[in-house]
Amino acid sequence: xNMDKTVRDPDMPPxxxxxxxxARLRAWLQILKVSxxxxxxxxxxxxxxxxxxxxxxxxxxxxxxxxxxxRMSELSSALMVSxxxxxxxxxxxxxxxxxxxxxxxxxRRASIVRLTEAGEKDFAERALVHEGWVxxxxxxxxxxxxxxxxxxxxxxxxxxxxxxx
Amino acid sequence: xNMDKTVRDPDMPPxxxxxxxxARLRAWLQILKVSxxxxxxxxxxxxxxxxxxxxxxxxxxxxxxxxxxxRMSELSSALMVSxxxxxxxxxxxxxxxxxxxxxxxxxRRASIVRLTEAGEKDFAERALVHEGWVxxxxxxxxxxxxxxxxxxxxxxxxxxxxxxx
DNA sequence: GAAATTTATTTCAAGCATAAAATATTTGGG
DNA sequence: CCCAAATATTTTATGCTTGAAATAAATTTC
Lengths: 165, 165
Fold this sequence. Notes:
By secondary structure, chain A is mostly helical. Chain A is built from six helices and three strands. Chain A has a domain of 72 residues: Winged helix-like DNA-binding domain superfamily/Winged helix DNA-binding domain (Arc Repressor Mutant, subunit A, Orthogonal Bundle), CATH 1.10.10.10. Chain A is 63% helix and 10% strand. In chain A, a hairpin with a 2-residue loop joins strand 2 and strand 3. Chains A and B meet through helix 1, helix 5 and helix 6 of A and helix 1, helix 5 and helix 6 of B. The structure holds a DNA duplex.
């Protein structure tokens, strides 16, 4: 683990920043640029092809993985978004007939959300198309670069997981 | 340039996807995960330390680079967001006294947005602190990994720039 | 030079996202 | 049992974001 993050070069004036710091900032700005570009492309395709949105796709994806359904709180922590946010997205998906809320035995506070049959069918189709879009948007990414990218980003992610010190 | 993106292995059933396609999807999901995590951390810091937001920071950053100011349309294309979006953010920054709108000579449709003196001063301070936050969040990222990341993401970005075919 | 088109910006409606407050229910002492 | 604390979820207020429509001014075309 890098422990140098707060150590300053004594030769450096306090209003300047190190080269490594600038390299990391550039890396972050590049991540941001790519993720916004790709997200924008995917959002547009979702809207035009399916009349839907990425957040709804994400909720359905999480539920597709756990066929028994999930609680609202499980959903919001799996997707790393706020509780209130999930409430709204689930509401819309219920209206569309993609999801149902099922009461939980012995806990009247909670409810479990599940894909309907229609929701499952729709998602299965959309997921395949979605993977095709992503593969096309990333068609210049070789297998080895994909692996390198994943490795590097995992290190970054794990460093920032939980442990708010 | 990879031209294979639409070629399917004839041995593969049409409802399955290739390994490279799955690797690219994993890479994309990892990018998304990291960028959301980091963006969340930075948003919180911005709010707590400066009572401000990332979109406002981004607008001020763009204007800091071009001291003569920018038109609304220049701003929105530099930040790659919609015109209407910029209108709202600029409105708030004007209210805060960070920005001014200056009419353009010979074109009464347009206006130029500039940082005020206070805006310039505030941004200079915030930018340094911001760089420190980023460097800390990415403190596990070595110089060589930062370079590798930037190189890989640049290829992805350039492939998706403009040329909507 | 009037009409049609293009360009620059704003407004609008809808959805996404957060933080904080509110509501409802369950659980854990005393 | 009662009540305080914890838990699950929704509601509210605010801001960001988009796409589309509206407004206004400049440019082009006839």
